[in-house]
Amino acid sequence: MLSFLNTRVIVNNKEIYPLLNTGPVVIPVEKEHLNIVITDGFHFTKPLKLAYDQPGYFNFEVTCVLDDLHLLGGLFLLAIFYLLGLLTGFFILKLLSFLPVIWFLFFYYFNRKDFLKLQKGGRHVSQTRKGFDQ
Predict the structure, then answer these.
(1) Where are the domains of the chain?
(2) Quick one: CA torsion of 19, 25, 26, 29, rounded to 10 degrees?
(3) Which tens digits make up the pLDDT trace of 47-66?
């Protein structure tokens, strides 16, 4: 789902950096304390406060509750239920085909605070950093 969203990083409520699907985004920091928020314009993560005392970097990954596999599985269920309803003539199967759409809309509109998540990166980080609060 992140490939469809226009996600951005807001740093210290001032600077905005777009997140790219192709690779990491490097954000230069000049202060010792940093406040990061991830947004797509509708969903916001909790502000993450970072503190560091030596040169280095933080490695984070932005994840979404609905990933591409969920979207593909929902599309598959929608198609199967609708085709079964079309071939058999059972109206209830056609109605069941809307369940994935309702499920996705529930997560998108009603689960706003947990839709986007900021997690520690999966890649190896050379230095252990203080100040990563979850």
Answers:
(1) 1-65+111-127, 66-110
(2) 20
(3) 888 877 776 677 788 888 88
Token look-up 């909790």 returns 46
Going by C-alpha positions, the residue among 62, 53, 55, 60 that lies closest to residue 130 is 53
In whole angstroms, how large is the CA radius of gyration of the chain? 20
- The DSSP code sequence of the chain is -TTTS--EEEETTTEEEEPPSSS-------SSEEEEEEE-SS-BPPPEEEE-SSS----EEEEESS-HHHHHHHHHHHHHHHHHHHHH--HHHHHHTTHHHHHHHIIIII--TTTEEEEE-SS--SS--S----
List pLDDT tens digits, range 74-110: 999 999 999 999 999 888 988 888 999 998 888 888 8
Angstrom distance (rounded) from CA 95 to CA 91 = 6
How far apart are the C-alpha atoms of 122 and 60, rounded to whole Å? 8
